[in-house]
Write a structure and sequence with these properties.
This protein is an all-alpha fold and 230 residues long. 79% of the residues lie in helices and 0% in strands. The N and C termini lie far apart (47 Å).
């Protein structure tokens, strides 16, 4: 594996771990949440520096449906990350306490909740769009799976996506995203591992959606082309 590709993989893995840690907000403590958030933003900047070639060519070439989808998701991830950082600085009592910001805290809390939960979904979709890279790396390491292993892996993926759907509603993530509930609830008596397992499953759900969206677009294009030929 080339050095740059390996670095990209490490940065992406660190961002995924940081994202899951950040979703536990009250469970890990406000100070830890703030510093992990700062680290997440730094990793985000490094990620974009490593992928500068993509950014330079964003206005070049032909835009297919898949490319439009990818660009829109990237833009939404950027907006949510920016919203999280701006609101996080406004709310900070540790990492940016030296700024002594006091105004607009109610707005900042709302923005932070929206940016955090929508960002979680957008980043998971973004990861799903590039999940083929992960599967290709796995094939290089262990070889092509047998038919039995393929069905076992598909069954596991279906189970994760199914449980992720249940966990999405169980954790009230949709109500946070739509501001039906304006304050996140955390059960401090619940083992933290169970909390993270639920969020990993929800992430798995949106990774699966992101992974299959380009395939759905290709199938739709084929169907439209077939109709035109008829």
């Amino acid at each position: 594996m080339k050095t740059k590709r390996m670095l990209k993989t490490v940065i992406d893995a660190m961002m995924t771990i940081a994202l899951l840690l950040l979703m536990a907000y009250e469970r890990i403590g406000q100070a830890a949440h703030e510093w992990i958030g700062v680290g997440m933003f730094v990793l985000f900047v490094i990620h974009h520096v490593l992928n500068a070639g993509w950014s330079k060519n964003v206005l070049n070439g032909r835009y297919t449906a898949q490319r439009v989808l990818q660009t829109v998701i990237v833009a939404l991830v950027f907006i949510s990350m920016l919203g999280s950082m701006v609101s996080g600085i406004m709310l900070s009592r540790h990492a940016f306490a030296f700024l002594s910001l006091t105004g607009g805290r109610a707005f900042a809390r709302t923005l932070h909740m929206l940016s955090g939960y929508w960002g979680f979904v957008f980043m998971s979709l973004h990861l799903g769009l590039h999940w083929g890279v992960v599967t290709n790396m796995a094939r290089k390491l262990v070889g092509n799976p047998s038919e039995v292993r393929k069905w076992v892996l598909r069954t596991i993926a279906i189970f994760i996506a199914g449980y992720g759907t249940y966990a999405f509603f169980k954790r009230g993530i949709g109500s946070y995203m739509l501001l039906v509930t304006r304050f996140a609830f955390f059960d401090f008596e619940e083992p933290l591992l169970l909390f993270w397992l639920d969020y990993i499953a929800v992430m798995g759900l949106f990774i699966a959606i992101g992974y299959h969206m380009p395939k759905a677009l290709k199938d739709r294009k084929r169907q439209d082309g077939f109709k035109e030929e008829k």
